[in-house]
Amino acid sequence: MKIVFSPKCLEYGEPGHPESPERVEAVYNFLKDKYDFIEPQPCSDEDILCVHTKEHLAAVKANNFFDPDTPNLPGMFDYAKLSAGAAMLAAKTAGQGEAAFSLMRPPGHHAGKNFLGGFCYLNNLAIAVKYSQAKLGAGKVAILDIDCHHGNGTQDVFLGEHDVLYVSLHRHPFYPGTGQVTEKNCINFPLRADTSEPVYLRTLQQGLAKIVEFKPQLLAVSAGFDTYEDDPIASLGLGIKSYGTMSGLISALHIPTFVILEGGYSQEMPRCVHEFLKGFLR
Most Cβ neighbours (<10 Å): which of 8, 91, 231, 255? Predict the structure, then answer.
């Protein structure tokens, strides 16, 4: 398991904002002596345009946007490009036979073709999937989104594409309010706020069965750790050990896999991430 990380992603932040540099720095400090780390390079504008519109690219590049949850900060475009580049490197590493985890910010799954939101500017995972298909020879790619929030941006990008399957387990009703039903190649599992670990894991197995049926060459995981039982923003009742069980089920599929960090805001996030990564090493 390789971890993609650059300390540059810790350079920006807005005081009091939950998507803080401290959340990722705490995970890095917990993992730095346990794993091999590799450093990414920014993606190109051309990589971005495989997913996003020219208008969206121009708006983010020029800091010409407003969203109450998604801070408009100096240099944001460069930080977003680096996070997307890290996702691409994780995908490349997975294609070479070793699972990889991108421990970078900002996250991405709420960024659609022509919109941002929910702390997300560019859709890191979508850019990596398109790169994998165009440059790395990946044919069919499955996406598993286990963030507590529905990845409305990822669904917006891939809805109706025959060579991509999107599977999401998420809390509903909850932000962003999408993902109530399955649409075409986007299979959604909305879950109640009081979902327990056994129910969640049974639902995950249903989603994984859909992925096996799809027969992808590559699996991309949007990993949010805001499903943890004591997360201050969101929760789906999972304990720390749940994450090892989850990743064990994913690893047992024997599909080349890369993982992208999305949400997760609790003080126990480093332990949750570590438990999740250990599942790929068994």
Answer: 91
Domain with 184 in it: 2-278
What CATH number corresponds to the domain at position 42? 3.40.800.20
pLDDT for 67-96, tens place per residue?
999 999 999 999 999 999 999 999 999 999
110 is catalytic: yes
32: Cβ contacts below 8 Å, ≥ 6 apart: none
Counting the structural domains of the chain, the total is 1
Give the pair of three-digit tokens for residue 120: 């997300």
Residue whose entry in the numeric block shows the structure tokens 């790395």: 136
Q: 282 near 251, Cβ under 8 Å?
A: yes
CA atoms lying within 13 Å on the CB side of residue 106:
29
Q: Which of 110, 149, 150, 170 is catalytic?
A: 110
245 contacts 255 by C-beta, under 8 angstroms: no
